[in-house]
């Protein structure tokens, strides 16, 4: 189990679905950042279960408490402990869950790896694990905002077979947050909401794609060769439950173009000076070249599979390999994407702030 | 610059395109592995430039020398230093390369990040950097083979608009190595070779996709939540030059399915015992569930953009932001995929051996 | 601020003297270890303030709550969150502490490093920070005990000018815990207790030395060249507040001997087989040779300076550099050593369990 | 085996006593530092064997070659590979060394840990391993000098029973380098040289102590709680062969003082402004308080045991545990301290530059 992330801005998350609570310790946060519990709570509220009819009916206030690391409203540079108690971990008979393996879930592999598992609600493999990421991500996001003006925005761009039709650079937070799906295209959003409703009624589930747009990201960050910015982002997103793919810039579609069609020509950008005067005409690079951010918007797409937990009966085996039929009870999201939007933003923030601090360590030491 | 990779099996690579040489130090290799320079050389020969008309004409023997860490033909557990001298770093006038930024290359971002750059042949952003990965990967591959019987195989499954038509599980090393493209489908391979030839003649370049198949991978490896197996693989592949995307199992296509269509039913697998008796009917998970390998083949796809360096004239700017026309001379691959196959295999080996050792550290300590 | 320790068995501590609480997240603990809150509490009780007249009068129950990572009494391999609420953080006027720098304390350097500080009770520089280490150390200790039979024992061997007179190998836990000073020599213990009483009455403080003895430590652990066992132990102990020195085996005294006097002759050890049949006649190496444990008892000594906080008036400066007189109020230990014994044991356990797991990752893979 | 050191300024060393060569890769060096092979060679020449009658007669030019990472005389921010070929690895019959364990050497523990060992000249446990540290340390030292004006100086302050009598702050590089022992006190230096000569003639060896003084070290560096500056320094020095102890500031002697005697009073330092106006009257803290450098000189002492390899016959056992007599042939230093001075300086530089970069990453981000 490795629940520590980052090199200079490090987070350590803990907690299971049905334990006492979940949380995170943030280590290496620069001192002097003004931040409040309310700012962190705002992000957690976007991730919270039960926020709409499209999400799991589990009711959790997900109220965060900051335990350490702040003094007079500012970070002190010492570890920031944050705790979110679990309140709606239903006490009930887990029945079949004890020895049945849910298809495409982590039950079997946890048994294989650790020898046994906490079968209550998915244990650590539950999406509840991501609360710590979101709480820490709120701090990372504010650092980037304050230091670089960075704007991190994600939205659902595909649910099942329905695709949004919008230029990512024109997506607005207001529109995204004004619909239950968190889609930047309001027309597609309605269709997506209906599709999710239909899937739930059919005891089934849907997957989709989240689009990430980062404007005013710190420039020059990313540490070739192994810690290229896109490599770190890919790892960040693929560490999220249910993810199956990652693209930056032109992605898989770009592989069908010729170099002359694909290359982003450098152009002069008006009145600015020095490196700020240089940009690219197109942005198939997705804001990253040679593993380093170039000042253009960072564009990524993340694939999420349909929720593995569905209510309809499924074929599976038990611990002894005996074939059985599983009818999952529990509570679950028929489509994880609306809530995953904020988690994607959090991972982007955590990844970029770490690379930003690493660049800051060495940049400009010798002119 | 971060050129160290791995937690327990660590590699540290060095060297530029036009310096004295490139190499790697492998730290943390278990003691007692029998390995020879010839075994490492065999992998380097597959990566070598000039191996066919489809690759860069740069001529390099890429002869590896093991400097340390072996005794009487076996690893001693101490660092294994390996060096490959550069021999064909043409001495010439770099002319425009000194202050022109090649589109979609790392020239601009290296200047932005480091303040200046070694402009000779791409410096550290050159694909020559991957030699150290391949040399170290040969050792990682042998460890996995000896310890788990692991078979790591990659091939080109798409070049430009041409797709291979073959079940990844049926791909054979012999077929792959018998054509210049390293495609597992011999019919597609011929079309791909022609397409690459055409692109080169047109002073242009092509991209494509590499398919990875890992059979008999160690089971139970991957460290949730942040170091899930797919997350580490994604980072590994996205750390390669020219990569734009990653998929595991069903990938982006799987996001369009419903849960009931997508889930991999668990089934009993014949006469085996314990966990070995349990497998999945389908493998949309791509051999990884909950971030942990489950014993099914690992299936990944990696997107490579068309080579950024092309011979036809392109629009760009110089250091001062002045718009200019670039006509690249140099030597380059019109399509990097045939040579990238071995690099993908190396990164898979390096990633899996590291996770394997980490699992071995804790597994079975308390029954 | 770097509050994460370990590579495979990782702990992340948080919390200040006067915040809501202190705690730790343990990441990478092997699954299947049976452990209870009571076992962890037992160690915390040995560290607890107010346990005797020789320690600070601050009253804290230091009651630990395990938040995650256990299921049915066993570790699951997932992060173990532990929290100890602060209960006796007196609310009062900090007066001079806000802008006066206590001599030989961390006030000045925290301001220098972080720009400002939490001045209440020392903030993160308080010994209260060590609670997380002790809680995590209790788990590490049990792993070593279960897996290797390891016995970790520390005691106060010097207070001020009073030295214990006892062979470390003959020290007994029972004797150590039966006196207030935690000295293995009961005669010296009485003199030490009196000396501490006298120092407190004189508004002054004392330092001293703690002796560590580890029997049945895992063999073959320590990772040359940079992570030699003695190097990791030295870092572990020097990371504790108030430490000024470290010795292993013969230490500084051994530097005055000749090689022929200092070398530990290898001898055959009776009826055992293989490496277990080989030991050393003397143990000036302190159980570690070439950075690797050799099976003999590990012997270390750690120097603690006299407590920096004393009640008698002292010369100092304020933030503006103006010279002032400080008369510390607060509550503090006149001598930290009796309580530091358990912290030294915890750091030894944390360090050895991490090296043990690393050795287990690679050992015996290729015979 | 763990031969990687540092978090932001990372070095990876390799090579054995009797292999093809030894070397290092420096990863994470800031770009733009002007440095030459000659500057690195100068440090290696101070470490070189055969430099005087007091050292091993092994003859090695120890000529360094920079393989990568520099362009037009400056570091590019990419890995700096450096190689030093072995030239005088005598080919001979190792005879008894194959299965005899040299007392207090690493032979037995390497066999225990790795299963077998390179018995030629100590393999990786040879002091030859430190060449990579010295080469990398030369770069670290120059960074600190250029960025902060830091002066790192070490000298032999004790050999056997002979102690130097000099205030560390008055030690001069010129005096140190003008005698064979590298002692800052010329009178003691002569006695020490004679003592070493006598020990060699007696087929015996001597140990001693090295004093380190760092002036103008970067302020505010050190990362509490686990990576306190003194903790990192302790690990750095204890990772050197033959070390048995470490002290910072008042060290073990300081434990006998009372707090009122030991505390360093803060005082106003003349005309400077801000934090530069504040210093301490005494320096028992050794330049580090609360784990963070305070601007006063850093003072450390490192204990080295007498060389384990001696020519006189010694009792030992062979691999099978059979008791035997060893008469070491080989070539060795009768006292390692004169050559260890430069290695101590290198480790101090490597440690401080890493902490300096980490502090730079976060410092002053939010005023």
Short description, anyone?
Chain A has 367 residues and is an alpha+beta fold. The first copy, chain A, has 9 helices and 18 strands. Helices cover 28% and strands 21% of the residues of chain A.
Helix content of chain A: 25-40%
Number of strands of chain A: 18
Strand content of chain A: 15-25%
Secondary-structure-based class of chain A equals alpha+beta
What is the name of the CATH superfamily of chain A? Answer: Chorismate synthase AroC
Oligomeric state of this protein = homotetramer
Which geometry of chain A do the CA atoms define?
Answer: globular
Classify the fold: give the CATH topology of chain A: Chorismate synthase, AroC fold
Distance between the termini of chain A: 43 Å
- The CATH class of chain A is identified as Alpha Beta
What is the total number of structural domains of chain A? 1
Describe the structure.
- Four copies of one chain form a homotetramer.
- With 367 residues, chain A is α+β, with helices and mostly antiparallel strands.
- Chain A has a single domain (4-249, 285-366), classed as 4-Layer Sandwich (Chorismate synthase, AroC fold).
- Chain A is built from nine helices and 18 strands.
- Chain A has helices spanning 37-47, 107-114, 131-148, 173-177, 186-201, 229-238, 251-254, 259-262, 337-362, and strands at 4-5, 10-14, 21-27, 65-66, 70-71, 74-75, 80-85, 151-159, 162-163, 208-215, 243-248, 266-268, 278-280, 288-289, 292-293, 298-304, 314-317, 323-326.
- In chain A, a hairpin with a 2-residue loop joins strand 14 and strand 15.
- In chain A, helix 3 (131-148) crosses helix 9 and helix 6 (229-238) packs antiparallel against helix 9 (337-362).
- The longest helix of chain A has 26 residues, at 337-362.
- The two termini of chain A are 43 Å apart.
- Chains in contact: A-B, A-C, A-D, B-C, B-D, C-D.
- The interface between A and B is large, with 118 and 118 residues.
- Strand 11 of chain A pairs antiparallel with strand 11 (243-248) of chain B, so a sheet runs across the interface.
